[in-house]
């Protein structure tokens, strides 16, 4: 399993929050959030920690590549969360702030559990294959560019909910980019850039051919 070091470039700082070292640990943290029949965004934030910027960027992007993304409005909510957190990371805030109305948004615990089970196998594969490489894509300027790209993708996602599965394409790009940030793995960052380009090409094709309409 890859050991992921704390991020020192504009966000994750040491503190009382747990240090999540793998995608599987992040899934375990989400699974342990909340009690009862529903889990709120606030519950997830409390479990993962408000200093853990990269994991919190990763959680909604993972959910948006799962079958749960089929819930109407969820891609927009997920993109809003990712955008807010990424902007705060760019601004160098010491901890994450999310408005109360967003913290209160909930999903059924049973549905979330099924989603996490669906994600475990691919996340375990990623954990086995991440390591520090392509360091040029993990320099501070490069990481800032990556964060800016995530913000731009988040601005695009809400307009694409009318096109089936397209939001999941862009969420996959964010997932690759967030894994790169978390694991300092430039190869996943490169995958994220390539996937973003491919997703934009797919959108262009859908719009130009009228398939989405």
Automatic annotation (TrEMBL):
Pfam families: ExoD. This is Uncharacterized protein.
């Amino acid at each position: 399993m890859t050991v992921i070091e704390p991020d020192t470039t504009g966000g994750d700082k040491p503190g009382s929050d747990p240090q999540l070292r793998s995608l599987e640990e992040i899934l375990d943290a989400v699974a342990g959030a909340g009690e009862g029949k529903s889990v709120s965004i606030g519950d997830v934030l409390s479990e993962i920690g408000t200093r853990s910027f990269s994991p919190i960027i990763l959680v909604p992007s993972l959910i948006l590549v799962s079958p749960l993304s089929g819930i109407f409005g969820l891609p927009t909510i997920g993109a809003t969360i990712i955008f807010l957190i990424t902007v705060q990371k760019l601004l160098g805030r010491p901890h994450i702030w999310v408005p109360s109305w967003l913290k209160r948004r909930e999903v059924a615990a049973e549905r979330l559990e099924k989603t996490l089970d669906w994600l475990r196998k691919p996340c375990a594969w990623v954990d086995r294959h991440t390591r520090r490489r392509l360091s040029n894509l993990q320099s501070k300027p490069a990481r800032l560019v990556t964060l800016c790209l995530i913000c731009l993708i988040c601005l695009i996602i809400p307009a694409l909910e009318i096109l089936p599965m397209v939001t999941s394409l862009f969420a996959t790009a964010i997932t690759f980019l967030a894994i790169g940030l978390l694991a300092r793995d430039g190869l996943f960052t490169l995958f994220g850039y390539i996937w973003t380009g491919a997703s934009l090409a797919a959108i262009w094709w859908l719009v130009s051919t009228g398939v989405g309409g």
